[in-house]
Structures are given as C-alpha cells and as structure tokens.
Amino acid sequence: MMIMLPHFLTILLGVLTILASIQPQDQSDLFMRIFKNKSGFISLDCGQHEDVKYSGLRTGVNYISDAKFIHTGVNKRIAPPPIIPQELQHVRSFPSGVRNCYRINVTSGTKYLIRASFYYGNYDNLNQPPEFDLHFGANVWETVKFTNVSGITLKEIIYTPSQDHIQPCLVNIGKGTPFISVLELRTLTNSNYVTYSPDLVLSLFKRCDLGSITNREYRYKDDVYDRIWSPCELSSDWRQLTTSFNINDLFQNEYSPPEIVMSTAVATVNASAPLQIQWNADNVNEQYYYYLHFKEVEKLAGNETRAFHITSNITINDKFLNRPEIHIYRKVSTISSATPLVGATRYQISLSKTKNSTLPPILNAFEIYMSKDFSQSETQQDDVNAITNIKDAYVVARNWQGDPCGPVNYMWEGLNCSIDGYSIPRITSLDLSSSGLKGHISYSISKLTILQYLDLSNNSLNGPLPDFLTQMRSLKVLDVRKNKLSGLVPTELLERCETGSLSLRVDDNPDLCMTKSCRMKKLSFLFTKRDKAQSGKKNLIIPIALIIILLFSLGFCIFNGQKATWSNSRKEGSMKSKHQMFSYSEILNITDNFKTVIGEGGFGKVYVGILQDHTQVAVKILSTSSNQGYKEFQSEAQLLMVVHHRNLVSLIGYCDEDEIKALIYEYMANGNVQQHLLIDANILKWNERLKIAVDAAHGLEYLHNGCKPAIMHRDLKPTNILLDENKHAKIADFGLSRAFGNDIDSHISTRPAGTLGYVDPAYQRTGNTNKKNDIYSFGIILFVLISGRHAIVRAAGENIHILDWVIPLVERGDIQNVVDSRLQGEFSINSAWKAVEIAMSCISPNATERPDMSQILADLRECLSLEMIQTNDGNTRVRDEFVSVATAGSTTKENEKYETPKTVNSCCHTENSKKPELQRLHNTQQPYSRTNKTNTTIAVPPISLQEKWVLFVLALRFVGKRGLNNLDFDREHSYKIDQNVAALHFLSVLLGVLTILVLIQAQDQSGFISLDCGLPEHLSYSDISRGINYISDAKLVDTGRREDGGNKVDGDEDGDGGDTSFERKGWEIVVYIAVTGKEVGVGGGDGERCRVVSCHVRLFTYQLSLYLIRATFYYGNYDDLNDPPQFDLHFGANVWDTVKFTIASLTTIKEIIYTPSQDYIQPCLVNTGKGTPFISAIELRPLNNRAYVTNSVLSLFKQYDLGSITDLEYR
Q1: Are residues 1105 and 1048 in the same domain?
Q2: CA–CA distance from 1074 to each of 824, 1018, 1091, 1096 (Å)?
Q3: What is the dihedral of CA 595, 599, 602, 604, to 10 degrees?
Q4: Which residues are listed as membrane-spanning (predicted)?
Q5: Is there a single domain that holds both residue 184 and residue 216?
Q6: What angle do the packed helices 853-869 and 945-962 form, to 10 degrees?
Q7: For residue 889, is it within any domain?
Q8: pLDDT at 546
Q9: Are residues 662 and 608 in the same domain?
Q10: Residues in the annotated binding site for ATP
Q11: pLDDT tens, position by position, 482-535
Q12: Percent of the chain whose predicted confidence (pLDDT) is above 90
C-alpha cells in the first residue's frame, strides 16, 4: 500500500508537469496576504450586503458588512449617493422591535474606542430625521439627535468590557425609526484615558486640532488609534504656529496624537495673556475629563524658555493643576485631569506663563470627555450563554435583544432577574409558556444555576423529563403542563414535591408517568420492546462485522507499512514501557554524581545520565529551595505517566525519596530549537523550520484535543521544544501544565506562569487561563522560527517585542525582511506568507478569533505542502522531499505499548467519540435531491465524471485537512496512520489543481475562462480561427430558460435548451454564473447565441491576480423586434459602462483590466427600461501582475495595430 502511493504520486506529477509546461503561470499572488489594517480594528458598514468587503479610499481601513453581527433590521441605501465616504452610503434601519442589538466578540479587559456614526441623508424619503436612544449592554449610552438632514452625527466612547462581547443597541422611543450607518471598534492601550472609577465610561465631548493650516480632519493612518481630529475655530486673541522641525522625528508619548496634528499649535497674541479653552454644560452634575497635548513647534534660543501654569475655574484636588510645566521641543507631553471637573454649567481651563518664562504658553490639541455612569452590571456570563443557547434552540420570537436583565425597563420578556445594585444580575425566573416550543427540554436550562421558577407549559415539548432538573437545587416551581412529554418522572423530583420544596406541575402529558403502577407498566413495556428488537439487531450483525473487519484490515496494512520504521526505535519503546521508580543512589550512578549539567528548568537543573542498558537520559532534579517546584513536580509526574505522543518528550521514570525528587526523561540529542536558531554556522533550513512547527503543533494539538480533560502547557517557548537525533521536534517541560476540571470549563484562575515575550497579554492582565493562551504563545514561536529573532530584544535601553517589529513589516507586505535573512532567500514566498498568516491568526488580540490547534495543524501541513510544490529544483526534488515528509517523525517502535490507567486524567478518547466530521462525510453518500415546498422530491441527473472527480478530491482533502486521527482510531495509535497525512494532503493539493482543469474541461491550460452564453449544457467547442475552447454557462447558472424561436439548436435533442441546472453546494472549487431571464438560441455560429439577463454574474477568480475581462454583445435581431436595447453594466458595487448599439448587426465589446480583491467577480447586467439586457460571451484572461500598473480599473477605449499589412484582427 505504501509502495503504491509514491508511484501514484509520480504519475500525477508527470501529468501536472505536462499541463504546467503548456503555459506556466505565476501563482505567487494567490497566497499573498498583506495586512493593511492595524490589528484590533473592527469596522462594520451597516446596511451593506453581506458578502461585500472593501477598503476605505482615504483611510485604507477594511470595512465589512454588519450582517453577521445582527439578525434584525433592513438594509437601505442613500439615493442618489452624495459625495460622502463609501461607508456612509448605506444604513441599517430598524422599523420593527423596540430594542435591536448588535453582538460583537471582543477581548475582555482590553480598552476600546467605540464609535457609532449616523448619516440620515433622507434615506426614507420622509425628510424628517428621527430621534432615538443608544444602549450599551445594560446601560443607557446616549440619545441620538440630528440638527439637519445632511449632518453626520458621531457617538464615541472609551470602554473596557468585562465580558468577551459587547452589545450596542438602538432603542425606539417613539420619535422615528432608529438607524445606524457605521460601527467601529479600535483597541487602545490600557494605561491611557484612565478614570477614577471603573464604572465610569468616557464619552467624547470635543476633540480639537489647534492651529491647523489645512482645515481638514485627520484620522487613521495619521492616527494609529483612528481618533478623528477636527480643526477648531480660532479665538480672536490666538495666533497660529507651525513647526520648523521634521515631523517624522517626533518623540511620541503613550497617547500618540498624530504627527500632523502636533506640527501646529496656537499661542496668545498678547504674550502676557492666558490661553483659555471654554465649554458649557447642560447641568451641574455632568463630569468632564480633559487631555491637553503639547509639543514645542519653535526652535528656542539659548536664553528663551516656555513655562506656564494650568488652572481651572473649578477648585479640585488635581496634581496637574497649579504647577509649572516646561515643555521640551520635539517631545509630546499630555496633561490630563486625574479627577473630573464637576459642579458648574461653564468650564474654563487657563494656561498662564510663569514669571520667569520668556514665551507665552502654547497648545497643539486637546480632548474633552464627559463621563458616563455604566454602573449597571451586565448579566452574569454563564447565564447569558445559557439563555442565548435556549433562544437559539427554540428560535424564541420575542424581544430577546441585548442584555437579558438590563436596563430594567428592557428586561427580556419572560425573565426575572436578581438586581440589587451591588451584585451581578442573575436570571431567577424563566417563563416560556405558550411559546410554540418543540423538541426536548434544552440542557442549557441546567446552566441557569440559581433559577427558581421555570414555566414551559402549553407547548409541544416531547421526550422525558431530563435528570438534570433534579440537580437544580434552587428550583422552586416547575411547570410542564400541556406538552407531549413521555417516560418516567424522576424519583427525586417526586420526593421534593412531596416534601414541599418543589411545586411540580405535569398535568396533560398523556405519556408521562408518575404513579408506581404506571411506572411498572412502562418498565415492562420497555423490556418487551427490547426483546422484540433482538431479532432485528441480529440482522445487523453480519454487515457490522464486515465493517469491523475492513477497518482492522486497513489498520493492519498501514501498521505493516510502517513496520520497518518502527523497528528502528525498539529501544525507545522499551524505555517508555518502564515507568520505574529510581532510588537516589541510582540517580547518582545514572548521572555520575551529577557530573554534566545540560540545562536548568523551571524548578531545578537538568543533568545528562546513562541507564544500565546504556540508554542516554536527561535527569531533572527538583530544587529543594522551591516550594513552588514541589507542586510542579507532582503535576508533571502525574501527567507524564499517562501522556504518550511522538511529539511529546517521554517520561522514563522518577525518584521520590525523602526530599529528593527527580524526573528521568528520554534524552534529546539535538537540544532545543532556540539553540539552533542562534547558531549561524549551521542554521535551520526553511523546510526544517516548517517541519518543527508541524511537529510542535501536533504535540500541542494532542494536549488540547487528544487528552480528556484537556491539558494546557502554559509555558510554550523555543527552549521547551526539543529535537531528537533526526531533528524531530517534541514538546517538553510540563511542570507548568494544568488540566481542565471538565470539558466545559473555558477559564480557570491559576497562578501566573510563562516566559516574558511568549505570555498572552490577556493572561497577564487577568490570570485566567485557557487554550487560547497556548495558541498565542505558539504564534510567537512561529514568528521566532520565521524570523530567527528573539521574542524580546533589548535595544536603546528598552525591551522591543517581536510583534512590534514584525507587524509593520507584514502591513507593508515586506516578506523578505520578515523571514530570517540568513536563509539568503532560500524559501518559498507562498509558504512564507502562509506561515505568517497562521502566526497572525494565533496572536489575534481577540482570543475568540484565534483558531483551534487542530486548524493550525492542518494549516501548517498545507504550508509545508506549499513549500514542496513551490520548490524550484524540479519535480525530482519535489518527489524526494515529499517522500521524506511522508515518513518523517516515525520514531515509534514496533513493540511499543501504550497502557492508559483508568483515571480521570487519561489522555484518550472513548469508543463512542466519533467525530462529527466523520458523520458529515457519511452523509455525503446519501442521494442528492431537493425538496420543494410541497415536499415533492425532485430527481437529480446522474453525477457526471467531473462531479465524481470532485467528490474524490474532497475525500482526499478531508483526510489531508483533518488527519486520519480524527476517525475512529485510538488517538494514542492514530499517529502511526497519520504518518501519511502530509502525503495525502500534498496529493489533494495537486489534485485540486487538476480538478480546476476537469471542471473547466474545455479550457486552455493557460488560465483562460471562455463562456458562450446560451450554448446548450452538454456542448463545448474549439473556435476554428483562434483555437480558443468555449464552454456553455448552463451548468453554472441557477435560473433562466431557453427559447429557440422554433429552431432546435445543434446538439439539443429535446429542444428544451438543456437540462435544468441547480446549485451544488460544498465544493471547494466554485465556478458559477447566477442569472435570470430567458435564453435565446438562434443558430448560426460563434457569438450568435445570447442570454437575456436582469441579474448578476458571479465568477471564481484568483484573489490579487490581474485579469482582462471582456463582455461581448451581438444583437443580430434575435428577438425579431429589430430594436437593439440599451442597458447598464455594473461590476460588483460599481458602475462599469452603458451598452449601446448603433446598428443591429454590429458586435459591441466592453473590456476592462482589473485586479479582484476577493476570490470572485460580479459583472451585472442592469435593465434601465430601454429594452431587455442580454449577453453573448464572457471571457477572462489572466495577465502578468507587473503589466498595466495603476491604482484604478482600466477600461478599453481604443486598441490599434499600426502599420498592419493584412487588415486583419489579431487576438
């Protein structure tokens, strides 16, 4: 079996080589991922279509639709669009419901700038701007008012969420329909914008750029936090100042105001007069914080000084007031109020020069915030999760938007909460009576741990009363009357009912049993039913036995295929099977009296040792001075005794004699990864680094997903990744590992652990641990492997983190400088970008967006496959490297035994742990059919050869992506089969390329896509004059019908224009056209068939690749009206051109050169009321990305061949 695989691969590679040699294409742009946005930005264009993504022309900020963050509201477009930014040209309007809320995942404990923008623009043609409220979770944020129809209203707060999501809400107060244009989140530094109470949120009152000479607003990219700085009107006694310094030499502080803003300032005309800023308040209870930003803009002479006092008309205890401040030029200083200004209706801050100052005070910019009281706590997180799951399970159609318990006036219908103003609100009552509920009683109800009242009466619930109800000790009333429940009422519920601690109401459930006699009848019925089922089960024995035999045969073949490799490691296998206890005297003999130190771990030194059978080992001795170390020892010893994986360092034995405690590990001959990255003489090659990353990911994935309960490492770093004699990587040092208490725990508070530079910032802030902390550390390790740099570098007296260095390079797309320069360019650009993309996903500030280790492992395998595919040394090298990867890491021995003790920490899956992915794979074997509204099954045509090929590739893709260890194999042995996953995954990538060729079977291999619109489905042809292969668009369209004008098109036997097409979902390669209207075939020749459309076309393309796109229109009086139509062409969200015909017999061509930013394009035909739109042909031609370079789309105006002697067209 293993011998055939490389042979099969050789044949496929040969075919692929022939295809590639016809016209090799540069695919480097396909995998380029340039991160143009600052990490942590979330930018939602509200009301935009779900699949639309774009970058703001002025800011470069990437906007996406808000459709995935809210399930209510309607999309509206401002028409005609005014000259405003694209993100303001749509709105989401909320004509239904009182409160409509977004839910956006964030990182708890991280400070955010949150901005909501509203542009009315008379979108509803009422010319009457509404007025409505904004809520934020359980608190009231602001009232939105408009002074005029065309004004833009912004509401901005600075907020630190305590949970992993935020819920901005729009509330209808009876003064018009609420709407929103844009919702934006920007991460800030937690040390900025600090208030004296965590319940106070800063709401922007005013932000001014003083002395501006451009009179324009500045935001990102000038401001790294995307604050909007507006020029403010100058006072009559002020004068403008501009800097004489290079603004690029600006020394910033933690607030980082934009350089362009700090390059100008104001000063008083009269040097002796104070510089004052003033504002009015609506009432005396409003509290204000100010932030004054200074930087010297003039070069001072030696005898010149600028010093001044800052005072306020409100007397407060503020350390920044009433003291002189001397500002050093070129360095930004920010003065802020430590306590709020309160108690007046007019405020004034004055800057007055000191007695000895020779120059008047200056001010470059300032910010004023009004504090908002967000003291109403949001509902407890577990209760929120539970009630949200209940809402989803039963599709509850109520006002269940925003925070369940707050504000109190907007509490969810059917809920009561414990709200006392001090503790976190909890759900105590749930009334879902008469709500049309179906199915079983949801397990999520059990997560409402202090629920006292539960009413599920008058619904259609079925199944038994679940046992989890007996564990809900706070429950006082349970009402399930008038349902379809069956089975036995749990005895404990009956007992609690008899004692009076529970009011139990179960009437009108005919099949629900409470009495003893009824219970006995039920039991008798169940036994009888079971006996009758035995005969049926016997009929299943034979097919089940055959399946088991097949699975064992597969395992046996693969096991024997690896037998030679395993036999080379018998020594290690016997070593792992010992797990013996050593005495202290034996430890002395093993280490030769602790002669050679090879390292120092978290709790003591590590020595090299030799066992009696000459096996080399590493001995870790617990330091007697570390109490912390004893806990680590116990944790590591217990865990490692049951953890076995080829990418985890194995424990051989241990010593526990009096105060002497030691662990004996297998010896790793090649040390740790950090050592190899620091050696310039023999640096790690690029493919070696990728293999190390794959090995480490495999080990960590096993800890996270292969162990029950899951294990976190909590101190991942290159020094804890060791290499054996074959440079196979294994994760070491589990002294800081912790197991989850159970499967559902997501956060466990533990003592801090980890290494500076590799620790998740969220973990440092909160001390709460989860798998995502390890994911972050793994992302840093990937960057260290990619760049060959330390995680922390000391420069100019400061610690510089690797992310501060690498992210700007990634944003600029400078992959050459990201990758270790010592490799001298010996790496694949595609695989390098893929590795960077994986690392970036791991270090996402929002922990919920970080992928699981299983996904990371699959992506790294794909990355390694890319490296092999892109190798420039020819196919022979690719095959050799492929074979080496297929057998890499096979260090397990033939006679290796894995014995897992029966313990809660057992790192294995149960027999019933079948993965849902496997079930989905089984489902794909069911016949494909569609059911219409009348439940009539529509037969589907037989699956074609192309479709069978796709299914075959998807099967390989499934195995390569998921790994065979996700099937029903013991996780501890699955890696033996998984040796071939890299080979299968690589094979699936190659087959994917071939699949594209099969799907577009009549296409030239140069990447041409040529669609003859209206050609019958089963026809294709090669144009005689040009040799271009054309195919029909019939398989690629969801709607439309054919009319042949009474003439049957050649090849269309039944005259119906081909089979009805339908959409096939789930393919990895999607090439389709969606159109509506009627089709017309008129016979004749190329270009004389056309499709009348009124919708859009969607074509699969390569992202960031340059294309020539041509649409051809030949009217030819196909409709016998002799009146050519006029219609518009759109391209996605933009207008392309207008199609006009001067003569019915002429061909009209529209052609553009375009680089798609997404993996598809959408040319659209738009009916403008001047005839029926149609199209004859659509053609796509890939171009060299270095040609036709421009920042816009090129539309062909003229194209001439000058001096031609043939008078022929050439193409």
Answers
A1: yes
A2: 48, 18, 12, 6
A3: 10
A4: 540-561
A5: no
A6: 120
A7: no
A8: 54
A9: yes
A10: 620
A11: 999 999 999 999 999 989 999 999 999 998 987 654 644 444 444 344 444 444
A12: 38
Question: Quick one: DSSP state of residue 705?
Answer: I
> Residue 992: which pLDDT band, with cuts at 50, 70 and 90?
low
Check: CB of residue 1125 under 8 Å from CB of residue 1144: no
Does 538 fall in a domain? no
According to DSSP, the β-strands at 365-373 and 62-65 are: unpaired
Calculated CA dihedral for residues 915, 921, 924, 926, nearest 10 degrees? -70
For residue 1135, give Cα distances in angstroms to 427, 1130, 1166. Answer: 52, 4, 10
Instruction: Collect all residues with Cβ–Cβ distance below 8 Å to 853 and sequence separation of at least 6.
Output: 697, 700, 701, 704, 705, 771, 774, 775, 778
Q: Are residues 1020 and 1150 in the same domain?
A: yes
- The reply to whether 8 falls in a domain is no
Tell me, what CATH number does 446's domain have?
Answer: 3.80.10.10
Q: Which of 648, 666, 684 is the last residue of a domain?
A: 666
Structural contact between residues 642 and 905, judged by C-beta atoms closer than 8 angstroms: yes
pLDDT at residue 1055 tops 50: no
Tokens of residue 258, six digits: 């934009």
CATH of the domain at 139: 2.60.120.430
**Nearest CA-CA partner of 265 in 367, 368, 369, 366:** 366
Q: Poorest-confidence range of 95-99, 386-390, 658-662, 869-873?
A: 869-873
Residue position matching structure tokens 């602001």? 142
Please classify residue 1002 by burial: count the beta carbons closer than 10 Å to its beta carbon, then call 0-12 exposed, 13-18 middle and 19+ buried: middle
One domain for residues 767 and 637: no
E strand intervals along 303-452: 307-312, 325-326, 333-336, 346-353, 362-363, 365-373, 415-418, 426-431, 438-439
- Of the chain, the end-to-end C-alpha distance in Å amounts to 49
Q: Are 1149 and 1078 in contact, with CB atoms under 8 Å apart?
A: no
pLDDT at 745 over 80: no
Count the neighbouring beta carbons within 10 Å of the beta carbon of residue 902: 5
Please list, residue by residue across 1005-1017, b when 16 or more beta carbons sit within 10 angstroms of its beta carbon and e when fewer do. bebbbbbbbbbbb
The phi and psi torsions of 428 (rounded to 5 degrees) equal -115, -15
Q: Which residues are annotated as a binding site?
A: 620
Statement to judge: residues 327 and 435 lie in one domain: no
Query: Quick one: average pLDDT of 805-827?
Result: 90
Domain of residue 604 covers 570-666
Q: What pLDDT sits at residue 948?
A: 47
**What's the number of domains the chain is made of?**
6
Model confidence over 438-488: pLDDT tens digits? 999 999 999 999 999 999 999 999 999 999 999 999 999 999 999 999 999
Report the SS3 class of residue 920.
helix
Rounded CA gap, 395 and 358, in Å? 72
Burial of 927 by CB count in 10 Å (0-12 exposed, 13-18 middle, 19+ buried)?
exposed
**Three-class SS of residue 1117?**
coil
For the CA atoms of 961, 962, 963, 965, the dihedral, rounded to the nearest 10 degrees, stands at: 180
Quick check: is 982 in a domain? no
Contact 96, 257 (CB under 8 A): no
pTM of the complete model beyond 0.85: no
> Both tokens of residue 533?
């089922």
Q: Which residues contact 347 (CB under 8 A, 6 or more apart)?
A: 278, 279, 280, 281, 288, 312, 313, 314, 341
Residue the block writes with tokens 């009217």: 1115
The pLDDT of residue 29: 34
> Residue 1057 has what DSSP assignment?
S
Quick one: 242 and 169 in the same domain? no
Nearest of 199, 102, 112 to residue 158 by alpha carbon? 112
Q: For the chain, what's the residue count?
A: 1211
- For residues 28-52, one letter each, b for 16 or more C-beta atoms within 10 angstroms of the residue's C-beta and e for the rest, the string is ebebbeeeebbebbbbbbbbbeeeb
Give the pLDDT band of residue 653 (cuts 50, 70, 90): confident
Do 233 and 106 belong to one domain?
Answer: no
